[in-house]
Structure formats: C-alpha cells, structure tokens
C-alpha cells in the first residue's frame, strides 16, 4: 500500500468516526473547517453547517483560469451498528465510508496537496450538509443561492460514490402520497362500512407490477422505476379501516421535466383516489459533450454510465454549471449495514483528479512543443 493510500485511509477513518447524521453535522463541519484553515492559502467561509473553500486565482499577469468546483456532502443516514470505522481485506468499513466520506477525504487531501501555482484551473470546494434529507433543506441549495460566483464555474465534479466511473446526469425523484378513503364500521358488521384496503387492493396489485423501463440518453442508460415504499391503514383490530395511504417513490430519466413526471404519475393512479406530491427533485442534465468531460473520460479510460440515483449534479446543472459524478465510493454500498470503500480507490481517485487539475491533456502538451 502506498503512503498516499495510507494517508487517505487514515483521513477517511477519522471522518467516519465523527458522527454526522443529517441535521447533526456541526462536529464534522468544525473538524473539516479547522483542517482547511490550517492549509494557509485560499479563503474559507461557512454557511450554517456547510463550508465553502476558494483557492487562489491565477497569478497577476498570467492568463485567467476557468473555475472547477469539487463538492461533497458531509451527512450520513442514521447508524445501523456501523458507526465506528474498521479496516479489513483492503476495505474501510463504516457508516458513510462510501456515501460519501470517501469523496470528502479525497477532496480534502486534494486541497492540502495541490500547488495553486501548478493548477490549470482555479479551484473551489463545497462541503455541505443535509443531502440525505428533503431537497428543501439541502445545504448545497442554500450555498448556491448565497455564493453566486459558484454558478460561474466551468465544471462541477460531485465526488459521489461511482467506483471510479464517470456517471453522467442523474435521475429525477418524486414522492407522492396516494390516499384511498372508505367508511369505518365495526369489524363484526363490515357491511355497514367500506373497507379502504379492499377498495385499494386491485390498484395495489397492479401498481406493484410497474415495469423497470430503460431510456438511453447521451449513450447512457437511465431506468424509470416506481415503488410503494410506505403503506398505512387501520386504527384498531376491530374497526373496518376507512383510510389507506401509500407512498409512491417515482424515479424518472433526465429527459423529463418535473411537470411531465407528475403528469405521468397521475395517469397511474385512479382519479377517484387522492394524490398529493410530497417532494420532488428534478433530474440532472447529461453533460457528455463538454470538452472537459470528454477529456476526463478519454485521459483515464473511464467507464461512463448514467447515474441511477439522484445527486446534486441536478442542482449544479439547474444553475447552469455542467457537472458529473466521479468518486472512490461504491454506490451499491450506500446505506448498507456493512458499508465499505475499497482503500485502493481513494488513491486512484486522488491521482486522477490531481492529474486532471494540474496537467494539460497530452494533445495540448504536444501542440505546445511544436
């Protein structure tokens, strides 16, 4: 194991061992802020439990450099017997190890190790809170509103877990509550009531068969899915239930607007049932044609895929900033009890981002030598 891998693993272990469940990120924000303040260059500002670091710009007289933003969330889902980090078999286990403290560790190490004078981009980094909760409380949403200069960036890279793949865009997300009503009665005299479960049963039997449908956008596959994730009914064991509520979690590809997604969802629910959209998040734009994205993919021979999940790529692209997902964590490990990150991925992510941020692409170097 290289020294860099060991250093990154130590950093990730420290981050995992700082509890940061959504809404309780103050301690980890304080720790990261102290580390950033010790670097000795760049400007650090704070917005609640989010941190914004802006590196030095190009030296006076040198050509202006485009801005690249690195971003990662500090929060995790609640612990599930995995709050303490441990290492085993080349992996680091623990809550948030993949989603997404591995990305945070790489971001922090990049800021500490890169020489601003060697950069071909200006660099900024955002460590933000409350990504795992509702979009309205998402720290990045607040940060982008407060720091308009971030929206002038040429590119944003979200260090979400991708297992070193370049994952473009992201699917949209919508939660809707379906309410089916009936009439309560004593269970010994059910003919005096209307059982809401019985009334909903034919629709429930049909909606759970919703097929996973694939859409290709920019050469990447995105899957439309619909799942019942919450189901509630009944008030007592001897009462015919008069209300059934079901939460529909709908995921849709980046070629749809929120309005189109909601219209699609409403076609799947009988008009006599009540439907209320509880929360929604637009998909992220697929930025496959941006020169820097093509360069990154070609330079490292990266596997390219669509992001089957919602990430804050959507917030950046909605603000006019092209963005993609690239990180050392493994998406399939997110929210798992045995969540882990391959330690070797930390070093690879760090090295690739270092090269991308500091070294001109081979074609540009060849042109300069002519």
Which descriptors apply to this entry?
370 residues; alpha+beta; Aminopeptidase; Alpha-Beta Plaits; 2 domains; eight-stranded mixed beta sheet; five-stranded antiparallel beta sheet
Give a verbal description of the structure.
With 370 residues, the chain is of the alpha+beta class. The protein folds into two domains: 3-170 and 284-369, Zn peptidases (Aminopeptidase, 3-Layer(aba) Sandwich); 172-281, 2-Layer Sandwich (Alpha-Beta Plaits), CATH 3.30.70.360. It contains ten helices and 16 strands. Strands 1-2-6-3-7-15-8-14 form an eight-stranded mixed β-sheet. It has a five-stranded antiparallel β-sheet with strand order 10-11-12-9-13. Strands 4-5-16 form a three-stranded antiparallel β-sheet. The protein starts with a helix and ends with a helix. The model has no long low-confidence stretch (mean pLDDT 93).
Quick one: CATH class of the largest domain?
Alpha Beta
N-to-C terminal Cα separation, in Å?
39 Å
How many domains, in number, for the residues?
Answer: 2
Helix content: 25-40%
Counted by DSSP, the helix tally is 10
Assign the CATH architecture of the largest domain.
3-Layer(aba) Sandwich
Residue ranges: pLDDT <50 for 5 or more in a row? none
Average pLDDT across residues? 93
Say which CATH homologous superfamily of the largest domain is assigned: Zn peptidases
Query: What is the strand arrangement across the widest sheet?
Result: 1-2-6-3-7-15-8-14
Q: Could you please say which CATH topology of the largest domain applies here?
A: Aminopeptidase
